[in-house]
Amino acid sequence: MKVGVVTFPGSLDDVDAQRAVRLGGHEAVALWHGDHDLRGVDAVVLPGGFSYGDYLRCGAISRFSPVMTEVVEAAGRGMPVLGICNGFQILCESHLLPGALIRNQRQKFLCLDQRLRIERTDTPWTAAYAEGQEVVIALKNGEGAFVADDETLDRLEGEGQVVARYLGENPNGSLRDIAGISNERGNVVGLMPHPEHSVEELCGTGTDGLGFFALATLAAEVFA
Amino acid sequence: MPRVVVDVMPKPEILDPQGKAVLGALPRLGFSGVTDVRQGKRFELEVEGEVTDAVLADVNRMAETLLSNPVIESYTVRVEQDA
Fold first, then answer.
1. pLDDT digits over A45-100, tens only?
2. Which of A90, B38, B53, B71 gives a 20 to 30 Å CA spacing to A217?
3. Do A60 and B18 touch (CB under 8 A)?
4. pTM of the model
């Protein structure tokens, strides 16, 4: 599959995400924030970083970039979209995912090896995992606390839209230990931890993140 | 030049870690008696011509779509008179 990785002004992890896509066995296609088309990709990754310097709110300005109009439209048709960290923030600002991400409860930027439990596996991004599987994936964020009103949180839990949860001590104050969520359909996933940093033994936290980039079999299912 | 001010504040039910940090710093500096601090943003918009209802309606739309995130923030719009 061709997987597009969008570079916004201030994206940091776009090249790592492209590498992870290739390690996952797919072709990585560089997409530019000013693009008006998605160059025929089958899936899109919005990478981590500090697009537009996190000015105004994280992801608030990127949301209005030309490529996001295309991403929102494609997501509506069922194209798999994964937003990592800043990408997750952009997905929330775009209303592709509910809720918002605010400053970590303890104000500090975090960088650690984080244990997670994968809870939703019927998404194109998490189908390689077993439900309830525990993984260790790099976590690094300053504004990673997921918040939403109780009604939204109940709905996310009730509909099985919580994709991953933090294990152990809650690192950033995310409500209900939420590390990642999906839309109802499951094609759009937002994740605060960075699976693209956990794809090789040489560096990072092992290879637990690779599953997010396997994509493989499930695209067919999602497009059906 | 008329100025329209948009104040954006975190909703009361949303934890405001920045406000909390400021609240924590005050006693350390010897200031007492402050029981809570909320930190928000103030936008000053210089607009052309008269501030009509249409202009205010536009500013409200700006506040709703860009200046604030309605999931976590509320906003108020007001016109500031020239000094």
1. 999 999 999 999 999 999 999 999 999 999 999 999 999 999 999 999 999 999 99
2. A90
3. no
4. 0.93
Which residues are CB-neighbours of B10 under 8 A, at least 6 positions away? A102, B16, B19, B38, B39, B40, B72, B73
Q: What is the rounded CA–CA span in Å between residue B43 and residue B29?
A: 29
In angstroms, the CA A81 to CA A67 distance is 13
- Tally of structural domains, chain B: 1
CATH number of B21's domain: 3.30.1280.10
Nearest to B15 among A57, A92, A105 (CB): A105
Locate the DSSP E strands across B28-80.
41-46, 73-80
Q: How far is it, in rounded angstroms, from Cα B2 to Cα A211? A: 55
Contact: A107, B17; criterion CB under 8 Å: yes
- As a residue count, chain A comes to 224
CATH topology of domain A2-223: Rossmann fold (3.40.50)
Question: How open is the CA angle A167-A171-A173, to the nearest 5 degrees?
Answer: 105
Is the Cβ–Cβ distance between A59 and A51 less than 8 Å?
Answer: yes
> Which residues, in sequence order, are bridge partners of residue A188?
A81
Interchain CB distance below 8 Å, A103 and B69: no
Touching check for A108 and chain B: CB below 8 Å? no
What H or E segment, with its residue span, contains residue A46? strand A43-46
**Token reading at A222:** 């999602």
**Locus of tokens 């975090």:** A110
Give the model confidence (pLDDT) of B21-70 as tens digits: 999 999 999 999 999 999 999 999 999 989 999 999 999 999 999 999 99
